[in-house]
Amino acid sequence: MFIGHFAVAYLLLALFPSVPPLVLLIGVSLPDLLWPILVFCGVEKVEVDPVSPLVKDVSFLHYPYSHSLAIGGLIACLLGGVVAYLFTPLAGALFIAAAISHWLLDLVMHKQDLPVLGFGSGDKKLGYGLWNNPRAAFAFEFLLYVVVTVIVMPIGLIVPLLILGTVFHLLNANSFFGFTPRRAGHSPKVDAAMALIGFIAFIVLANTVILYAWF
Ligand SMILES: [Zn+2]
């Protein structure tokens, strides 16, 4: 999931407007900022199908640090401690909540590859696999983003954030529907780089829009 995660950031920002938006935007993105870096470092392992551009054909074989509930949650807590120190305890707590919301929303979309603990031979992997139904997945993610944005954001932010979300969701459409017969790159590192660039670009743009139009 991509833009859908940011709906949670907007909701938390509307409830707690004193928290810097960047904290929440990075919080909801944390697992998807970590896995590309960990793939580059060889710590996490992803395989891609070179003849399919679909996100459902990306196999997250080993990603216990970025995408397990337990270890990922622990990393979020450690970073949340840093956020609490730098900003406020509330900002730290919301950073942790935002990061954990990422796992819960990924649970809806992913196939059964999300680890619960991230360690141990008896660990469970979960995922309800909405990505297997591309139209439903595409619509669910877009509607989540649009409905939350319209309900919770101040009036002046709704249109710019809807434009931003729509553009990025359309840029991501090929990974739902497979318009192109092949994947852009043949290496998981290309996917990792594209995911990282996409999330950073969205965070920077959304943060700029929110700071410019709200404060
Ligand atoms: Zn994710």
TrEMBL record:
The keyword Membrane applies. The keyword Transmembrane applies. The chain crosses the membrane at residues 86-105, 142-171, 192-214. It comes from the Archaea. Keywords: Membrane, Transmembrane, Transmembrane helix. This is Membrane-bound metal-dependent hydrolase. It comes from Methanosphaerula palustris (strain ATCC BAA-1556 / DSM 19958 / E1-9c).
